[in-house]
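User: Hey, quick favor. My workstation is busy. Could you predict this chain's structure for me?
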Amino acid sequence: MNALTLSRWLSLPSRLAAAFIGCLLLVLTAVILYDVIGRKFFDTGSFVLSELEWHLHGAIAILGFGYAYLKDAHVRIDLFAKQLGPRLRLWLELVAILLFLIPFMIFLAWFGYDFAMRAYVRGEGAPGGLGLPNRWIIKSAIPLTAVLTITAALSVALRIWVVLRDPARLSDPFERD
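Assistant: No problem, here it is.
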């Protein structure tokens, strides 16, 4: 298996998560519409619906980070990197992935798993019992996001490595899917 094929396989979890997020956006839209129409015209309101909106919004926001990184759509602050040449920028990106992003995401996955597991073991739910039970579900999005980001970062790192070894590919190092 060559590096680009492995890169595509590593990008698969983030691409599947992005498709799932698209479905979650539709669910979130439906929940918000139901909640707004119910509150406006039928004098109904629910802590559960409000909390569900926040949980869906939070899951959508963080589960998409791996895909955003894969597509180079994340926020960047390139104060000095834009003055560097393309090869040096790729080296900088590769080093940042290997020395900072992946270790931080491993740390986040480790502690995020513990965070979610403690919520599961304690049966953690909304304070006062008025909102959603099973807080471990939304808290599980943290380690899941870290794992998705690690696979996406490895995918990007492999693509960068291919480009660094074959400078003719420098025009499009990320070979967008």
